[in-house]
């Protein structure tokens, strides 16, 4: 059972690493370290270009409110991707130290006895289920919008051995560009451009958002292991020595929390604001529909589901992280009264995530 859970953890870890590599956010050194960094720059430039294109497109469609709001929505998604990629690039060194510290603590706990490993793996299924669900919803959304156009192209090619342009571009419908979309092979280029940019944007959102959950899982599992060892001390080990080790680990976790604040603080703050705006815009857009058919309903529900899942993901992970330090609260009742002040001190240093500007003002 433990081996299956360990394999599930490794799969979960590898899955997120692959997604982060695709979108240029993977920060750990590799054999091709320069190419990884250059890929991050290419990803960032691609999203900047795509965002600027959609901003100009929203201006060109200013007399068509519904399409203008759609272009603004795509542009803000591009801004979200830019923020995430740039944040991971700026804090690359801090993230490397963070990964080595937290991963080292977590892997050491995994090498303990079976009871501790069971404690560590108890919330694993919930965490990776959330990540896989998020990825599935994003994949379904992309396929819903882009698959019909590719099906038309493939079917026409198989029947007539010719690449047809008799389809509409899934995202823009061919309108809003500050150039005329030609009815030749460049039409297919526009389709590939829209597809690749949307996939890149969705991959960035899925990987960075889900990676936050992975970090939270490592945090809370390390805290659970510390709590278990403090409440079930070994007969061969002094409680004072065990407490000293746990306090040292707690200090290292607090340093990791500070790195997590600087990386994810602006991202979470951005999503709190922009997701609320997106949901309000979706509701307003729905009210403008003259004929609310199945296609419009699916479009509304899919976008709303993504934004709600994203908001819920950060809120839920943040709550878990905030409550992590409270696992130590009942330890103040431990029979060793002389150590109570140390435990209370650990309780006071909880794992709250705050926006970096909060520390400047306080």
UniProtKB/TrEMBL annotation:
The keyword Chloroplast does not apply. Signal peptide: none annotated. InterPro entries: 7tm6_olfct_rcpt (IPR004117). One of its GO terms (cellular component) is plasma membrane. It is a multi-pass membrane protein. It holds the Pfam family 7tm_6. Transmembrane segments: none annotated. One of its GO terms (biological process) is signal transduction. Keywords: Cell membrane, Membrane, Olfaction, Receptor, Sensory transduction, Transducer, Transmembrane, Transmembrane helix. It is found in: Cell membrane. Its main location: membrane. One of its GO terms (molecular function) is odorant binding. The keyword Cell membrane applies. Belongs to the insect chemoreceptor superfamily. Heteromeric odorant receptor channel (TC 1.A.69) family. This is Odorant receptor. It comes from Trachymyrmex cornetzi.
């Amino acid at each position: 059972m433990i081996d299956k859970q360990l394999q599930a953890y490794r799969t979960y870890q590898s899955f997120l690493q692959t997604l982060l590599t695709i979108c240029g956010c993977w920060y750990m050194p590799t054999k091709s370290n320069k190419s990884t960094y250059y890929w991050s720059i290419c990803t960032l430039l691609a999203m900047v270009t795509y965002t600027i294109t959609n901003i100009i497109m929203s201006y060109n469609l200013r007399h068509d409110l519904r399409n203008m709001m759609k272009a603004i929505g795509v542009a803000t998604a591009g801004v979200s991707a830019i923020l995430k990629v740039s944040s991971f690039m700026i804090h690359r060194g801090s993230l490397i130290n963070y990964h080595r510290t937290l991963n080292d603590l977590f892997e050491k706990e995994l090498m303990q006895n079976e009871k501790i490993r069971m404690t560590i793996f108890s919330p694993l299924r919930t965490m990776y289920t959330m990540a896989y669900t998020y990825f599935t919803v994003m994949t379904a959304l992309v396929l819903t919008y882009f698959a019909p156009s590719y099906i038309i192209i493939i079917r026409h090619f198989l029947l007539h051995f010719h690449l047809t342009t008799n389809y509409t571009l899934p995202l823009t419908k061919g309108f809003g560009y500050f150039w005329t979309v030609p009815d030749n092979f460049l039409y297919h280029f526009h389709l590939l451009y829209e597809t690749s940019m949307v996939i890149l944007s969705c991959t960035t959102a899925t990987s960075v958002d889900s990676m936050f959950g992975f970090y939270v899982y490592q945090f809370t599992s390390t805290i659970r292991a510390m709590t278990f060892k403090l409440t079930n001390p070994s007969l061969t080990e002094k409680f004072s020595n065990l407490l000293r080790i746990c306090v040292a680990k707690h200090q290292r976790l607090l340093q990791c929390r500070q790195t997590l604040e600087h990386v994810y603080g602006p991202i979470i703050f951005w999503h709190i604001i922009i997701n609320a705006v997106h949901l309000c815009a979706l509701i307003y857009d729905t009210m403008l529909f003259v004929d609310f058919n199945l296609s419009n309903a699916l479009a509304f529900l899919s976008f709303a589901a993504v934004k709600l899942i994203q908001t819920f993901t950060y809120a839920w992970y943040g709550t878990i992280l905030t409550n992590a330090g409270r696992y130590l609260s009942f330890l103040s009742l431990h029979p060793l009264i002389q150590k109570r002040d140390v435990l209370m001190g650990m309780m006071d240093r909880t794992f709250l995530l705050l926006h970096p500007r909060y520390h400047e003002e306080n």
